[in-house]
Design a protein that fits this description.
By secondary structure, this protein is an alpha+beta fold. The protein has helices spanning 11-17, 64-70, 120-124, 134-156, 215-225, 261-282, 284-293, 298-307, 315-324, 341-351, 402-411, 420-427, 440-448, and strands at residues 23-35, 40-45, 53-57, 76-85, 93-104, 160-161, 167-168, 180-181, 208-210, 227-235, 248-257, 311-314, 356-362, 378-386, 390-398, 433-439. It folds into 2 domains: 11-104, Beta Barrel (OB fold (Dihydrolipoamide Acetyltransferase, E2P)); 132-176 and 212-455, Bira Bifunctional Protein, Domain 2 (BirA Bifunctional Protein, domain 2, 2-Layer Sandwich), CATH 3.30.930.10. The chain binds one RNA strand of 75 nucleotides through strand 1, strand 2, helix 3, strand 15 and strand 16.
RNA sequence: UCCUCAGUAGCUCAGCGGUAGAGCGAUCGACUGUUAAUCGAUUGGUCGCAAGUUCGAAUCUUGCCUGGGGAGCCA
């Protein structure tokens, strides 16, 4: 494709700073075309903003009639023209086209995206095209802004971004179904004398999986660099069919040496406030759109997150609140059992009406690496419960005492030998440390108000779903 | 995995024992700057799949598949 002169501009920039009489070139896709007798309007979008650029096509353009036939919804075009103040309401500027090139045609009869509202269910069946819609476009711009803000937040605070492995040999938490990875011929598996699968012949010489968390490796790196974070894909093979679960999702996991649970909660709160501020500042148009069309509490919620402190309650106190609640729960409230979705929702949405941090959970329901409190009954774990979303962050102070950690691994029926390197961290210069994990897609859901997690990731993976 | 609701035109749905409908889209035409333009016409379907009940099934029954919502598990 020849380089237009002057070189092409992004539509967001034109709409923001363009001046009348300026000659510009734009490249993008046709959102809609309105033909009138004397001229035609074409709306062009290049993904840089929610708003389109309105282009006026005059019949004096060369081969005007043929051109109009080719400019159908979905077609890609390159247009050079002069910016003019729009005589009609709806936009400050529009473009009077002087040169139009149809780069790629689009057959209006078969193009699946129509000039009308589509259901998200339908858009999921055309995931390769849905990013061209207003809503998904806004979601992915917000997703990008949030990703960038995450790096800014940690980098500004001196955290090092560390790349933890995606392939792993250990199920680090002893929980959660994992997806296996193998180079063995599944139709002709090698067997040992005892009839078991002979993983000795597999690529790594032992069973391998996709990671369910980078936490243990992040702890390794924190023991050298003090403050680190991971931000990458993680995988779960759980048969979860809900609007809040994916088989492949992105997780943010900071890990801080010389830090306790209070420092961990402080970081989680500062983190969420930072991300919300950054997204409101960078994507005001998209956030307005979500507030107007998806969930009219999005903006109030965001300001509430930024301006007000999070509520912090111990698990024990939370149980007391739930026991006194003037309401019937489907699941019983009892000290020692995990909080159910309905309990978490009551706390965050009805009782406190703000993000709520529940901490000091019973030792029996939490993972082995969480640090035992002095009461002998609880561990220094915390969950951040977001109104409307539920658990968005889960974190803890880690058990740094070798003896205690070894006992906990044994108590959960895990093989201590598998954790030799993890235990080594407690042998050589062990320090109190803490961290948390945040499901990135849940954060994007929380930001945008989108109801289904499959609509906040471009290519969702879920049970029986990997078509795009 | 469990509970529940649904699958009819490209999309969103109505029809719920007598042989298929609407709106939108698309196409064509009209139209003094339109904003998901408007107006008119045209186009459009193995009624998710399989078996069964019946003179007759989109409609009733059973099984399966797919999707939504909720739950469990979790992030």
């Amino acid at each position: 494709m020849s380089n237009p002169s002057p070189s092409s501009s992004r539509i967001a920039e034109i709409l923001r700073a363009g001046q009348p009489d300026e000659t510009v070139a734009v490249c993008g896709w046709v959102r809609t075309k309105r033909e009138l007798k004397k001229f035609a309007f074409v709306e062009i979008n290049d993904g840089s903003s929610m708003a389109n650029l309105q282009v006026v096509l005059d019949p004096e353009l060369p081969s005007y009639t043929d051109l109009l036939k080719q400019i159908q919804t979905g077609a890609s075009v390159e247009i050079v023209g002069q910016l003019v103040e729009s005589p009609a309401k709806g936009q400050r500027l529009e473009m009077k086209a002087s040169n139009v090139t149809v780069v790629g045609e689009s057959d209006g009869e078969t193009y699946p995206l129509q000039k009308k509202r589509h259901s998200f269910e339908f858009l999921r069946t055309i995931a390769h095209l849905r990013s061209r819609t207003n809503t998904l476009g806004a979601v992915f711009r917000v997703r990008n802004a949030a990703s960038n803000a995450i790096h800014e937040f940690f980098q500004e605070r001196g955290f090092m971004w560390v790349h933890t492995p995606i392939l792993t040999a250990s199920d680090c938490e002893g929980a959660g179904e994992m997806l296996g990875v193998t180079s063995l011929d599944l139709a002709n598996l090698p067997k040992t004398d005892k009839g078991a699968i002979d993983y000795g012949q597999d690529f790594f010489g032992k069973p391998a999986y996709l990671t369910v968390s980078g936490q243990l490796e992040a702890e390794v790196m924190a023991m050298a660099f003090s403050n680190v974070y991971t931000f990458g894909p993680t995988f779960r093979a759980e048969n979860s069919n809900t609007s809040r679960h994916l088989a492949e999702f992105w997780m943010v996991e900071p890990e801080m040496a010389f830090c306790d649970l209070v420092g961990d909660m402080d970081l989680a709160e500062a983190f969420l406030k930072y991300i919300f501020s950054a997204v409101l500042e960078q994507c005001p148009e998209d956030m307005e759109f979500f507030n107007k069309r998806i969930d009219d509490t999005v903006l109030d919620r965001a300001r509430n997150i930024i301006d007000s402190g999070f509520e912090r309650v111990t698990y024990t106190k939370a149980i007391e609140i739930l026991e006194k609640a003037d309401r019937k729960f489907e699941y019983p409230v009892e000290w020692g059992t995990d909080l159910q979705s309905e309990h978490e929702r009551y706390l965050a949405e009805e009782f406190f009406k703000k993000p709520t941090v529940v901490y000091d959970y019973p030792i029996g329901i939490k993972a082995f690496y969480m640090r035992a409190n002095d009461d002998g009954k609880t561990v220094a774990a915390m969950d951040v419960l977001a109104p409307g979303i539920g658990e968005i962050i889960g974190g803890s102070q880690r058990e740094e005492r070798l003896d205690d950690l070894t006992k906990r691994i044994e108590a959960q029926g895990l093989d201590v030998a598998d954790y030799w390197w993890y235990l080594d961290l407690r042998r050589y210069g062990s320090v109190p440390h803490a961290g948390f994990g945040l499901g990135f897609e849940r954060l994007v859901q929380f930001l945008t108000g989108m109801g289904n997690i499959r609509d906040v990731i471009p290519f969702p993976r879920a049970p029986l779903s990997i078509d795009f």
